[in-house]
Amino acid sequence: MKAKRAYTIFSMISLLGLFLFTINAWAAPYISFSSNRTGNYDIYVMDINGENLLNLTNHPSWDSDPTWAPNGRAFAFASNRDGNAEIYIMSLNGAEPQRLTYRPESDTHPAWSPDGNWIAFSSGIRKEQSYDIYKIDINGENLQQLTDDGKYNFSPAWSPDGEEIAFYSRPNDNGGIYVMNADGKRIRRVMRPQDRGTSPSWSPDGKQITYHVGIMGSGIYIMGAQGQNPRRLTPNNIWSHNPAWSPDGAWIAYDAEIENPWGNPNVDANIYLVSVDGGKPRRITKHEAKDEEPEWVPEGFLSVSPSAEKQTTLWGKLKQSENAAR
Question: Which of 10, 66, 94, 264 is deepest in the core (most CB within 10 A)?
Answer without folding.
Answer: 66
